[in-house]
Design a protein that fits this description.
This protein has 5 domains: 194 residues, Rossmann fold, CATH 3.40.50; 133 residues, Rossmann fold (3-Layer(aba) Sandwich); 101 residues, Winged helix-like DNA-binding domain superfamily/Winged helix DNA-binding domain (Arc Repressor Mutant, subunit A, Orthogonal Bundle); 75 residues; 64 residues, Arc Repressor Mutant, subunit A (Orthogonal Bundle), CATH 1.10.10. It is built from 26 helices and 21 strands. The model has no long low-confidence stretch (mean pLDDT 90).
């Protein structure tokens, strides 16, 4: 099939979205390609369609476990065989998955970046017949970006083993500096192709409000804008408090954050997608990979850290092309606090060493060992045990992760997996000897195809419903089967996971790249300055301000953001200007007058227009304002 037939057959679309077809043709021509498509712009189609059009397997690198799982599940539902390998899987599971990728009839293998250089992956890579290397969230490769992940630096190394295989790097937001860094780090040649979708969102109205009561403003927004909405907050506690406020005011709402168990997260997400819940109040853990087109409002209740995050999150509104609103609420204290964040987020070197040493001791890792080992990490328990500040510790762990010492997945969920480790004949004998366990064995075989050959993802609650019993009973029976050597059973994990990428350093050999660490701190400060500048700007189209930050070329004035509307409201014709200025001169001719007196005398004219004329006359030194604020004519 050609690419249009593939799009119709598997995705049900008659035509590609803007730039998708150009990107696909570039890939099919064998060119290394950088694609910048906004949130909801259809990035996955750009590598999935050309991969389907070619013989072989598409290797997809992604840092987001939840997104990997969602995409693999989505492909399977379309009848496209796909696999994923990520941190937290057992050696047996990883080996079986890589064998299937190398020798099975699979079209996609999703891998987390830290897996690329492992011996096991390298062993199976030559047999995979890779037709395309797709790098999702490509901005993670640049330490000058907002989400640097050093494991991404390993991607370029495998290109030597994939001669002639094109690379497609995808991201929703990257400045020109980060774009150049992506291409350099991925070893793109001069024949590279770059595609950047327009930042024009003619249906999305950006607004920024400094308000005395955020609660009242939020209620006002949600009562004036009908339809589904997202409210972003910085803390988990805040999400619950805001939901209580909304429910108290008869607004159907629910909260979502990474601290909830997987079942709750899925249920809340599904209720919102299906419009059973109108407003989802969440941390930035929500939204990645969700394509809900009819979101009418995205409200940032707290100030985001950078324009990259804000643009992605705000961009989840109005994907259906109808009018939508992106609203940011702030206080001056928040802006002051954000400017102080640099020293908090980048602890000094002595603090970093102290926390690194404490962490290695907590995990009981001996110096010179630990590489490749996976650990559960409860940060709260760790900080209590070592009497550390939890905020400083969290940012120190992030900083040490960016040094490439380990990989830390704070949002992690791995469902239970089961595979039979006995033969079918031995299983029959076992069931005869243990009739009380026969129903659960039969239930597994009937519910999970291929469970004899490959680890199956098993949900104990679903299996319990199928067998009309309790989940707690099923778990005990599965443990008995495991104890008897009948199955390999790995119960679900939902704790944060840390995987060591380097052996623990000896105390006298501890070293980090101080120069790069300082540059990352300076880049953070520049991003903070940019978001504060965006917030404080009361003139200039907000869509244009965002586009300029990302080095986009021509972007039309949106005409619907708060600044554009304000500028329309205070447009003054020459005749109006002359009439207003003449009346001001007349009022101030004899004695000084106050602004309130001028506004009262000109009450039939919009006060914004009067202010605009006053500002101009003062700038031109035609009016003088004394210490008391009285206005008089210049001498």
């Amino acid at each position: 099939m050609n690419i249009h037939e593939i799009l119709k057959e598997y995705w049900g679309f008659d035509a590609f979205r803007p730039l998708q077809e150009d990107i696909i043709h570039s890939v099919l021509e064998g060119k290394d390609t950088l694609a910048l498509l906004p949130t909801g712009g259809g990035k996955s189609v750009c590598f999935q369609v050309p991969a389907m059009a070619k013989e072989g397997l598409c290797l997809v690198v992604s840092p987001l476990i939840a997104l990997m799982k969602d995409q693999v599940e989505s492909l399977k539902q379309k009848g496209i065989p796909a696999l994923a390998v990520y941190s937290g899987m057992s050696f047996f599971e990883v080996k079986k998955t890589l064998q299937n990728a190398a020798y099975g009839n699979y079209k996609f293998l999703y891998v987390s970046p830290e897996r690329l250089e492992t011996g096991l992956f390298q062993e199976y890579l030559p047999a995979m017949h890779v037709n395309l290397l797709a790098v999702d969230e490509a901005h993670c490769i640049s330490q000058w970006g907002y989400d640097f992940r050093p494991t991404y630096m390993r991607i370029a190394a495998i290109r030597e083993q994939l001669p002639g295989v094109p690379v497609l790097a995808l991201t929703a937001s990257a400045t020109k500096k980060v774009q150049d860094d992506i291409c350099e780090k991925l070893l793109f040649p001069k024949t590279q192709q770059r595609f950047q979708q327009s930042f024009d969102r003619p249906n999305l109205s950006y607004s920024v409000f400094n308000v005395a009561s955020k609660q009242n403003k939020l209620l006002e927004i949600l009562k004036n804008v009908s339809g589904t909405a997202i409210v972003y907050c910085k803390s988990r506690k805040h999400t619950k408090e805001i939901v209580d406020l909304l429910v108290m005011n008869s607004i159907n709402a629910d909260h979502y954050h990474a601290g909830l168990n997987n079942e709750d997260r899925n249920k809340k997400q599904e209720n919102w997608i299906s419009n059973k819940t109108r407003v989802i109040v969440c941390t930035n853990a929500f939204g990645m990979g969700i394509d809900k087109p009819d979101v009418r409002a995205v409200v940032h209740y707290d100030v985001p850290d950078c324009l990259e995050n804000y643009y992605q999150e705000a961009g989840r509104a109005g994907r259906d092309g109808k009018r939508a609103y992106a609203v940011l609420l702030y206080t001056y204290k928040e802006l002051d606090d954000l400017q102080q964040q640099s020293d908090i987020r980048f602890p000094n070197e002595a603090e970093l060493k102290k926390i690194y040493t404490a962490l290695m001791n907590h995990l009981q890792i001996a110096a010179g060992s630990g590489e490749g080992i996976n650990f559960d990490l409860d940060i709260a328990a760790f900080t209590v045990a070592f009497k550390l500040n939890i905020l400083t510790t969290t940012y120190a762990i992030k900083a040490l992760e960016q040094e490439g010492l380990f990989s830390f997945n704070e949002v992690f969920f791995k469902p239970s997996t089961i595979v039979f480790t006995t033969t079918r004949d031995e299983l029959i004998d076992f069931e005869k000897a243990h009739p009380e366990l026969e129903p659960v064995c039969k239930g597994l075989l009937r519910s999970y195809e291929g469970i004899f050959d490959f680890p199956a993802t098993v949900y104990e609650t679903q299996l319990a419903k199928f067998l009309r019993t309790e989940a707690s009973v099923i778990k005990k029976e599965l443990e008995k089967l495991k104890g008897n050597g009948i199955i390999s059973y790995t119960p679900q994990k939902d704790k944060p996971q840390l995987i060591l990428l380097q052996n623990r350093m000896y105390a006298d050999n501890y070293v980090i790249n101080a120069a790069d660490y300082l540059k990352r701190k300076q880049n953070f400060e520049q991003r903070v300055a940019a978001i504060i500048d965006y917030i404080k700007k009361e003139a200039g189209c907000r869509s244009k301000l965002i586009a300029v930050y990302f080095s986009a070329v021509s972007v039309k004035t949106c005409g619907i953001c708060d600044n554009c509307i304000r500028e329309k409201a205070i447009y003054i014709t020459t005749a109006e200007f002359e009439r207003v200025s003449g009346q001001i001169f007349q009022l101030a001719k004899e004695i000084p007058v106050t602004v309130n007196e001028i506004l009262a005398s000109l009450k039939e004219i919009k006060k914004e227009k009067v202010w605009k004329v006053l500002d101009y006359l003062q700038a031109e030194k035609k009016l003088v304002v004394n210490k008391e604020g009285d206005i008089s004519l210049s001498k």
